[in-house]
Structure to design on (245 residues):
């Protein structure tokens, strides 16, 4: 960060503060959202009934805003919060196995200051990276409907617009890849022909580079479809691209 002279703020500082303020305002709007009755009922029921291993813990039970560095040049897009992960902790990709896998990889490439995150106020910070989800409420069976996906999509569009330093998007899974393409199209950047998703697939969409990864779900990590090395390589590629920009 560049310091201003004579007690003032530089343009960089002012831009960072304005970006953080706007993202905080958007986060408040996301947290208050009740657009999708099925998701509202499910997330609140899970938070009320809990599971035995988290019986004594409070649950967040609300939509999840993005999390990370307001000055990020890398945006990571997941699918949705886990019922007993982010829906419990209040932070995307926190408190579940998928998050453990992601934070460790982010730490390995220098984007996170620690390799794990168990709760929203544990002090974890990201540098040059921001993490968001395509759908902000935990969906039953991890499967939002098309209407729920579309109702939530404007939040990601607005987040991406506010994160005006982002140059590389890392979608996790096909759902994240499609969400990234819809968000960039909403901002006027349409890729033709439409790039196909694949692990380590790359595409240029307007000012953005996309680098795809399989989602760090247990279905992928337990079967070896996605290894720690594979995810680290994708994130290192994203760092390399913004470093070259």
């Amino acid at each position: 960060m560049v310091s201003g002279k004579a007690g003032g703020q530089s343009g960089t500082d002012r831009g960072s503060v304005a970006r953080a303020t706007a993202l905080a305002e958007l986060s408040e709007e996301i947290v208050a959202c009740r657009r999708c009755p099925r998701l509202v009922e499910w997330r609140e029921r899970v938070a009320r009934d809990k599971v035995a291993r988290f019986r004594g813990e409070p649950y967040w039970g609300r939509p999840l805003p993005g999390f990370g560095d307001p000055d990020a040049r890398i945006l990571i897009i997941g699918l949705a919060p886990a019922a007993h992960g982010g829906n419990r902790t209040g932070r995307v990709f926190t408190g579940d196995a998928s998050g453990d896998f992601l934070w460790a990889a982010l730490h390995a490439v220098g984007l996170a200051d620690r390799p794990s995150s168990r709760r929203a106020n544990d002090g974890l910070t990201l540098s040059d990276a921001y993490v968001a989800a395509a759908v902000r409420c935990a969906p039953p069976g991890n499967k939002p409907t098309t209407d729920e996906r579309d109702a939530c999509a404007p939040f990601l569009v607005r987040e991406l617009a506010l994160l005006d330093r982002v140059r590389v998007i890392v979608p996790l899974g096909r759902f994240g890849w499609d969400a990234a393409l819809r968000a960039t199209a909403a901002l006027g950047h349409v890729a033709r022909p439409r790039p196909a998703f694949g692990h380590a697939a790359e595409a240029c969409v307007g000012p953005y580079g996309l680098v795809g990864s399989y989602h760090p779900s247990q279905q992928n990590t337990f079967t070896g479809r996605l290894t720690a090395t594979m995810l680290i390589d994708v994130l290192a590629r994203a760092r390399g691209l913004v470093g070259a920009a």
Summary: The first helix runs from residue 11 to 31. Residues 1-9 have pLDDT under 50 and may be disordered.
